């Protein structure tokens, strides 16, 4: 089928296409209106290693090594935050975290831990309860700080993690009306075009000539 024929077919079936588009846009808008509001709570933590105080008597490379060590240790902290030990300690800090191991595993999958910079880590969680999200990320940050101190008691005590912001950042995540409407429009348009292709165009009406008509025309 050529493009011209396809466009003619769409024009003949334009009512079907318009009905589908209207339903799709309405469905997208309804979805955006009824979808519950979600919140993302996030917190930034900074991995660092304290350097020795500067001295006028000698030059040392402690600053360079401190930066290199803390950068490498950031990868360890990434895995530590979502570990079972940290989550269990977080459950002791806030009642928003269940102590059940199965639910802790589910929470671990829900938590997003992203390395934003060589020494910067973001802890984030999406939930319909903004208070729950704030409490969870704060508890995980505190639990991670405690765990790092315990692990480094017999190692490098200068390695620590600190909070960049004292309070979590909370962002509202609500479905966008224009986006859902456009999505509904596109999806319904594709469905309507497929349906038009399946149905096809109206068959041409056969021309019936009667004997009397042919005589009259003669």
UniProtKB/TrEMBL annotation:
Signal peptide: none
UniProt key word Membrane: yes
Coiled coil: none
Chief localization: membrane
Keywords: Cell membrane, Membrane, Transmembrane, Transmembrane helix
The Polysaccharide chain length determinant N-terminal domain, residue ranges: 2-88
Recorded topology in the membrane: Multi-pass membrane protein
Top-level taxon: Bacteria
Residue ranges crossing the lipid bilayer per the database entry: 15-34, 175-200
Pfam families: Wzz
GO CC term (a single one): plasma membrane
InterPro entries: Bact_polysacc_biosynth/exp, LPS_length_determ_N
Membrane is among the record's keywords: yes
Subcellular localization, as worded in the UniProt entry: Cell membrane
Entry-linked PANTHER family: CAPSULAR EXOPOLYSACCHARIDE FAMILY, TYROSINE-PROTEIN KINASE
Protein name, as recorded: Polysaccharide chain length determinant N-terminal domain-containing protein
Organism of provenance: candidate division WWE3 bacterium CG_4_10_14_0_2_um_filter_42_8
């Amino acid at each position: 089928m050529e493009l011209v024929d396809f466009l003619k077919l769409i024009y003949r079936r334009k009512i079907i296409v318009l009905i589908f588009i209207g339903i799709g846009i309405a469905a997208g808008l309804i979805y955006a209106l009824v979808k519950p509001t979600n919140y993302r709570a996030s917190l930034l933590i900074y991995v660092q290693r304290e350097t020795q105080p500067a001295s006028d008597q000698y030059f040392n490379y402690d600053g360079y090594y401190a930066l290199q060590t803390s950068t490498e240790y950031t990868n360890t902290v990434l895995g530590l935050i979502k570990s079972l030990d940290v989550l269990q300690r977080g459950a002791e800090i806030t009642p928003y975290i269940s102590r059940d191991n199965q639910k802790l595993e589910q929470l671990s999958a829900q938590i997003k831990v992203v390395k934003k910079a060589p020494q910067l880590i973001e802890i984030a969680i999406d939930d319909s309860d903004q208070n729950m999200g704030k409490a969870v990320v704060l508890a995980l940050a505190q639990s991670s700080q405690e765990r790092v101190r315990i692990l480094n008691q017999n190692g490098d005590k200068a390695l620590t993690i600190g909070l960049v912001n004292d309070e979590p950042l909370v962002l509202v995540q609500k479905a966008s009306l224009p986006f859902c409407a456009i999505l509904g429009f596109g999806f319904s348009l594709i469905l309507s075009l497929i349906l038009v292709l399946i149905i096809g165009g109206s068959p041409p009406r056969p021309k019936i000539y009667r004997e009397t008509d042919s005589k009259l025309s003669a």
